[in-house]
Amino acid sequence: MYRFAARLRAAAAALTFGGLLAGTPVEALADPIRIAFGDIATVESLHLLIAFERAKEKGLELEVTYLKSEDIAAQAVVGGQADIGIGAPYALIQKVNAPIRMFLQLSQLRFYPVVNSEFYKDWKDLDGQEIAVHSRGSGTEAIMQLMADKHGITYSNISYVPGAEVRTGALLQGNIKATIVDSSGKRILEDKAPGKFVFLPLDDVSATDEALFANTAFLQKDPQGVETLIEAILTTWREVEADPKSVLVLREKYKLLPDATPEMVADIEPYFTEAAKLGLPVNGGGEEAARDDFEFYTVSGALTGKADELKVGDFWEFGPLDTVLAKIGTK
């Protein structure tokens, strides 16, 4: 595993809320906004780190903490230890009626189920076997459960291994044999061990992978701060989609991922080139994306009930996004 990932996992284990992104805002708009990120900072989150820096340049004070799972991030938001979380907590909202709402789609599911070909060749081979996914209730778990149902198989156990990069490293080291990785992990596996891994076929899915979510009381308390953050993210997403190479320049400008290995740095441009080609949610998702989520997550089992009977307002609050889109326009 990469040294950088190991160092951040150690930091996450402490669960100490502090400002991990340096920088003093020019003029704070409100109290510091505490963001709980249920993952490690890697290449795939680089554009989000850039957006955080840009929000701070606009006067927003941010404190970002990296936690070891989306579950813990959501618990931090519900418990008041954090203001904003990153994930897709559909199950939590529905099952315990948690007073949190998602308000901005950050990414859609772009993942690749993969197995070590020395042990497995297809989905049927995974019947009664162990797999690894990102975290409980995550999109990666939903995809793997959905495919298990489709192929009539049952996993013996599901291990939770946060970070696609970590799961990629574990595959290469032989610590896990079946998991799901992102496009960056797919390229690394194909480059470092050609022919050793089989990428299993996956039906086309269109659903939220990660979103920003917050306690409803916080959304009412600091709408200006929320809108500043949304605008910083959407303008960054649009710039990256127009010019994926800009991520390299902005990483240097803000001195992000300083401990990144040469392999990680080399993957930045290909990763964002592919992300731009597939399309970033440059308009923040919106109600149409929420409806797509209902279709996916009810089939996968993360949500109960019929998709067409679920109410968007029970899971999402689009007021801040609508305000920002009225200002910067839609694409």
UniProtKB/TrEMBL annotation:
Cellular compartments annotated: Periplasm
Signal peptide: 1-30
Domain SsuA/THI5-like, residue spans: 56-245
Coiled coil: none
InterPro entries in alphabetical order: SsuA/THI5 (IPR015168)
Keywords per UniProt: Signal
A cellular component annotation (GO) from this entry: periplasmic space
Family: Belongs to the bacterial solute-binding protein SsuA/TauA family.
Name of the protein described by the UniProt record: Nitrate ABC transporter substrate-binding protein
